[in-house]
Write a structure and sequence with these properties.
With 497 residues, the protein is α+β, with helices and mostly antiparallel strands. 33% of the residues lie in helices and 21% in strands. The relative contact order is 0.08.
């Protein structure tokens, strides 16, 4: 492709990146004065079927119109052209000279609060514009935020809308709704992981970046719960970060709300988050060490859920942490001791009896147990039977996570999602397993149905295998799953076609 002239105008200089859906180039625009450089994104359809191409073509035009509108914002690259050549689709966008935030966010290096607030204000401003135009970015991460060299402005690039076109051209309309969700683990909230992104999903991702900058820690799932990685409360799914950094209380409250596990508890819009930032005083109050409260409520949840970003989840109807706070006892409040009051023995005796009474009621109160929202009032369910009751147990999540690992080329981690007996049941062990999956470009997943009860489940799926950019075959597969208490996740122990 180097040196090739696209659309009789754009001369390819070098390759910026490549993937299963096409390549991204830096090219010269030979029809503009000075031959300025631009970015050309190639999107390859996987099929030459006329009806398929027409659907992809229509979708491509629609997304081009959306990107044209977004390019009116100075913090978004302008769309210069979109065209089709040899049944392949191309987007031409403004080239941004600068470096990504990934180059600035180094593990162990902490930003100042002023730097983080500037990051939030600049990016929330452009997200507000994006959301007001009916678009959700869907992949806000350091690699997709460029600090422009000319003015230090932060530029938001590589919209999820373009990725949707890529999925459309690779898998077709039928597979689009069932394939792995757009996004990046570590920055992607639970609702987005099951293909249901909201504007607050972008706010979550930006909050993660801000916490990454403040703490110097990495949100990468591979580093989770290590000295250099993020830590999550496995009961509630909340990100635990405040004990890792000195931070002002106001900024800590804003970031905590941005990254709440339940989307309903986050800011509903980027504008709302911006308003909260505007209320911060320009001179920060002295920073304080924010730590988790010493009170730790006992929560009975069996089995414990895994981290929501690794296992895509459906929306939880009620936050465990919220219910714990509601049930948290309030300590009796006693008026400050005054010299006139406690010199009077009658008053002193009355106050003492009141305190004893309150404490007795507190100690003798019935102990409540937090159970699954769908649990019976007379009995508890070890594993909820309704995916709407609590998302983290849904076996569809386990199956989706399994194929996401495969598509991300994390074959060893996918192999560990098989039970030991199922691993040993493979004819040639890990090597043949790995060789098979690595011989494919990707696998498309369509979940048809699931049946589950206490500790076991089946999930009916259609799998489409892609090789060399084309569908290889589609087959029905029914994985059998078993809940592993020690690992807090589903494992596949058998399958049938």
């Amino acid at each position: 492709m180097i040196g090739q002239l696209l659309s009789g105008r754009y001369k390819v200089q070098r390759i910026l990146g490549a993937g299963g859906f096409g390549q991204t180039f830096v090219a010269e625009d030979t029809q503009r004065p000075g031959n300025p450089v631009c970015v050309v994104k190639q999107l390859k359809p996987a099929s030459n079927d006329p009806s398929f191409l027409e659907t992809a073509r229509r979708k491509f035009r629609e997304e081009g119109e959306a990107l044209e509108k977004l390019g009116e914002n100075p913090q978004i690259p302008r769309l210069l052209a979109n065209f089709e050549q040899d049944q392949e689709f191309y987007l031409v966008q403004e080239f941004i000279d600068g470096q990504t935030l990934s180059a600035e966010l180094q593990v162990g290096k902490k930003w100042t609060e002023n730097q983080v607030v500037d990051l939030l204000k600049q990016t929330l401003s452009v997200l507000a514009f994006v959301h007001q135009n009916g678009v959700i970015h869907r992949d806000v991460k350091p690699d997709n935020i460029i600090r422009r060299k000319s003015d230090n402005q932060l530029i938001l690039v590589d919209f999820g809308a373009v990725k949707q076109v890529r999925n459309q051209t690779a898998m077709g309309q039928k597979m689009l709704s069932a394939t792995i969700a757009i996004g990046t683990p570590g920055y992607m909230p639970s609702e987005q992981a099951i293909g249901k992104p909201k504007p607050s999903s972008d706010i979550y991702a930006l909050g993660v970046i801000a916490i990454q900058a403040l703490t110097g820690l990495s949100p990468s799932p591979q580093q989770e719960d290590t000295d250099t990685g993020f830590r999550y409360d496995h009961n509630t799914g909340e990100l635990v970060w405040q004990d890792k950094v000195q931070v002002s209380a106001n900024l800590a409250a804003i970031l905590t709300k941005m990254v709440k596990f339940r989307s309903q508890e986050r800011y509903t819009s980027a504008v709302e988050a911006l308003q909260a930032l505007d209320q911060l005083q320009s001179g920060y109050t002295p920073t304080v060490q924010v730590t988790s409260p010493s009170y730790q409520p006992t929560v009975q949840v069996t089995p414990q859920p895994t981290r929501p970003v690794h296992a895509p989840t459906v929306q939880v109807s009620e936050s465990v942490s919220a219910r714990n706070q509601q049930n948290r006892p309030t300590a009796p409040q006693v008026a400050p001791r005054s010299s006139s009051g406690f010199n009077n023995p009658v008053i002193f005796a009355g106050v003492l009896l009141f305190i004893i009474g309150v404490v007795s009621v507190y100690l003798l109160r019935p102990q409540s147990t937090v159970t699954s929202p769908q649990a019976s009032s007379t009995s508890q369910q070890t594993v909820p039977k309704s995916p709407e009751s609590t998302s983290v147990y849904d076996p569809k999540i386990g199956v989706t996570e399994y194929y996401k690992l495969i598509n991300n080329r994390q074959i060893d981690q996918a192999f560990q999602m098989l039970t030991p007996e199922f691993q040993n049941d493979k004819a040639k062990g890990y090597k043949s397993y790995s060789d098979w999956w690595l011989s494919l470009d990707s696998v498309g997943l369509e979940i048809i149905n699931s049946n589950w009860n206490t500790g076991t489940a089946t999930v009916d799926t259609n799998l489409t295998y892609f090789r060399n950019g084309k569908p290889l075959k589609t087959e029905f597969l029914r994985p059998y799953l078993r809940w592993n208490d020690s690992l807090n996740k589903w494992q596949i122990y058998n399958s049938e076609k």
